[in-house]
# Entry
Amino acid sequence: MNFLITGAAGFLGSALANQLAREGHMVRAIDDLSSGEPQVLFEDVHFTRGDVNDRPKLWTLLQDIDCVYHLAARVRVSESLLYPREYNEVNVGGTVSLMEAMRDVGVRRVVFASSGAVYGNQETQPLQESAPPVPRSPYAVSKLASEYYVRTIGSLWGIEAVCLRIFNAYGPGQSLPPSHPPVVTNWLRQAVRGGSLVVHGDGKQTRDFVYVNDVVRALTAAATAPDVDQAVINVGSGRETRMRDLAEQILAVTNSPAEILFTPRNDPGVSRMWADIQLAKDLLGYEPKTDLETGLRRTLEQDERFVAVAA
# Structure
């Protein structure tokens, strides 16, 4: 098949692009490199630096494409609190531009990478797709709005649209920005360096951590699965992990003497979040294969940043 991936130089985008290329598909990739690293892409991935709001460029890249993966987005929740206008312009505006370009060219399927963050606080766990979203940040709002645009424009113009609500993905190669880095990658770095793992609050809040290879399996399945038009599907591990337990597992897999520090929380955040993945099993044949301990060990062993520090 012929694919276009937006945000292809990012963490999930590059893993997906490389896997599709490994399987022998033709893969075109676009990324504005605001946070991605194109050198992680295989040589046979056809990379273009560009913005998803550049419709003439999209018209060219979309020629003869069977399916688009839309992963391009700003993804930092804390940053979105400060810059909601920018998050709306990039995440929502970019989604609308892409859907317009797909309509113009005649591409027939899009897989959109949404987020479990759209759910917000929910009393009933695990989270089912039927739960009414209660987004708590501009980032979450932008993902939810993009879901509606993808599905609405898709239904109007005959584009099959699949929205995957991806939970807390982690794995080798995940970026480590200087402010508010992803918790798994950050704590692994702290552990191998002998630093402290800072847990906000009592650490009893929970998340669903899903290994990158499992996310890629769900994404690849969504390109060809039948009867998924207009579907919204959770992608997670289906397991609930307390933050304090995550910290302890990281210390165990790294054999680190680092300390776990508990600090008061300014923002209580979401107290519980884990995915009901039954719909993904039914529609995509999805079954996560990597438990948390295995995923942490693989990240530690395969990410050169941690290997170099440990050595």
Summary: The mean pLDDT is 95. The CA atoms of residues 187 and 197 lie 6 Å apart.
